Amino acid sequence: MSLTLGTGPLARPSQGRLNADLWSVAPAHALFLHPLQERIRGEVGGQTVVDTTDAQLLHETGLMPRWYLPLADVTPSILRPSLARTTCPFKGEASYWHLELDGHRLEDAAWSYPDPLPGCPPLAGLVSFYLEHLDAWYVEDEKLLGHPRDPFHRVDARRSSRHVVVRVGGVVIAETRSPIAVFETGLPVRYYVPEADVRREVFEPSETVTVCPYKGVANYEHVAVAGQRYDDVAWCYREPLLEALPAAGHRSFDGEGVDVAAST
């Protein structure tokens, strides 16, 4: 799902081929740091505490990419040294910071590597935050949804004429010749079925909601057929982000008891 996670090329994927034996020279644990061009801001209590156009994104084997931001672009005096320390065998010793603002303290809200290990990307002078410790993050003027986006992750929503049949518990609940096929890095293709091509009477509301930084907020539904309920096997992006916009209002399906068959 990124350079260093899932099926990414630096995650030792089981599929795909290179014209060289990268793994004979690449470390088992990869670190890749690169600059971002977006302006990134973080807020606490409506006040901006970090504002930068010089953010870096760190990719690390088995982990989601993380922002590392210049300490110089954090509001002066709000970060207070913490006694907490952790050691990473690949990056070195991490020093932690409390965030203090208007008499309130967020314990160990951020960390930095003042003296990274040899071979580690240049992390000195940068700080990374636990994103959830701040009230809001903005990329340019758009509020961050979920975790930071990976620029090597892609979502393509394509209109299709494939014949898609969805069965839950062996019962056909949707059939269409006009699905939206969503191709997403590291994930199997998902087919989204128009509202007109589903059996509306089998759906029951669910309170489950998930957030995807690339597609938006998904609302889930249960499906009840043949006297059995299958929980959270259908979902819909009512107001998807731009990449998934063609799938707006369509349903996709997955989970126990679900079979989605697509043919030409």
What can you tell me about this protein's structure?
- The protein is 0% helix and 50% strand.
- The chain is mainly β.
- The chain folds into 2 domains: 22-143, Domain of unknown function (DUF427) (Metal Binding Protein, Guanine Nucleotide Exchange Factor, Chain A), CATH 2.170.150; 155-263, Beta Complex (Metal Binding Protein, Guanine Nucleotide Exchange Factor, Chain A).
- It is globular.
- The two termini are 27 Å apart.
- The model has no long low-confidence stretch (mean pLDDT 94).
In short:
The chain has strands at 31-35, 40-44, 47-52, 56-60, 63-70, 79-88, 92-101, 104-112, 126-129, 136-139, 142-143, 155-159, 163-168, 171-176, 180-184, 190-192, 203-212, 216-225, 228-236, 251-253, 258-263. It has 264 residues and is mainly beta. The strands form 5 sheets. Strands 1-4-5-9-8-7-6 form a 7-stranded antiparallel sheet, with no helix packed on it.
Instruction: Give me the CATH fold name of the largest domain.
Output: Metal Binding Protein, Guanine Nucleotide Exchange Factor, Chain A
Number of domains: 2
As a whole number of angstroms, the C-alpha radius of gyration is 22 Å
Mean pLDDT: 94
Percent of residues in helices: under 10%
User: How much of the sequence is in beta strands?
Assistant: over 45%
CATH architecture term of the largest domain = Beta Complex
Order of SSEs: EEEEEEEEEEEEEEEEEEEEE
Say which CATH homologous superfamily of the largest domain is assigned: Domain of unknown function (DUF427)
Unreliable segments (pLDDT under 50, ≥5 consecutive)? Answer: none
Would you report the number of β strands? 21
**Structural class based on helices, strands and sheet pairing:** mainly beta
The level 1 CATH classification of the largest domain is: Mainly Beta
Global morphology: globular
Strand order of the largest sheet: 1-4-5-9-8-7-6
Count of separate DSSP helical elements: 0
**Termini Cα gap:** 27 Å
> Biggest sheet, in brief?
7 strands, antiparallel
